[in-house]
Design a protein that fits this description.
Number of strands: 5
Structural class: alpha+beta
Order of helices and strands: HHEHEEEEH
Strand content: 15-25%
Distance between the termini: 95 Å
Helix content: 40-55%
Number of helices: 4
Strand order of the largest sheet: 1-5-4-3-2
């Protein structure tokens, strides 16, 4: 009977020792509370910064300011820009918002390396990816109630775009005009 008790005690001691060892190893693997909070804090700051940028961009693109303004760099064009360096004409559309959104969606769907989504009742957001270096350019369309289409195309990286954004907008203009055919296109700016 003593032997059984000793065995039992021996096993319970081993259990205590291995539990203590596991706890020790676990405490070595897990960062201290201060270290964990620093790591968490760094990730939280990144997430909050990204969310802040999204909020800022949504504020910059509300209906009173239809499209975000172009930066001073030459890698952006907009139909709402006031300076010639960044200015392009608005794109043509149908005589109503729904028709122009459908037309624009149909044209974008035919283009390679483009993903897009409708954001709200009057806005399309597209991402164009370059063929070779996989650069991403963001293109935002705002469609007025009368069907006129405002556009902003900007590169995500780099200072120069070597005219890529302007060429893209002009290519979209040609494709839209081709689809419109004999209909009288409606231009952006000043629609209700």
């Amino acid at each position: 009977m003593n032997r059984t008790v000793r065995t039992k005690d021996k096993h319970s001691d081993n259990g205590d020792i291995s539990r203590r060892a596991r706890e020790g190893r676990a405490s070595q693997r897990m960062p201290s509370a201060g270290g964990a909070s620093r790591v968490l804090s760094r990730h939280v700051r990144r997430v909050l910064c990204a969310c802040g940028l999204l909020l800022l961009s949504s504020f910059a693109m509300n209906d009173t300011r239809l499209l975000a303004p172009c930066p001073s760099s030459p890698n952006c064009v907009s139909s709402l820009a006031t300076d010639e360096r960044h200015r392009v004409e608005p794109l043509p559309g149908y005589a109503d918002r729904a028709g122009s959104l459908k037309l624009l969606s149909d044209v974008l769907a035919t283009l390679p390396r483009v993903s897009f989504e409708q954001v709200g009742p009057a806005r399309l957001q597209a991402r164009f990816t370059s063929r070779v270096l996989r650069f991403v350019d963001d293109v935002t369309f705002y469609v007025h109630e009368n069907g006129g289409i405002e556009v902003r195309s900007a590169s995500r990286v780099g200072y120069y775009d070597f005219g890529a954004n302007r060429r893209r907008v002009e290519d979209l203009r040609e494709r839209l005009e081709e689809r419109l055919g004999d209909l009288t296109p409606v231009q952006g700016q000043g629609a209700g």
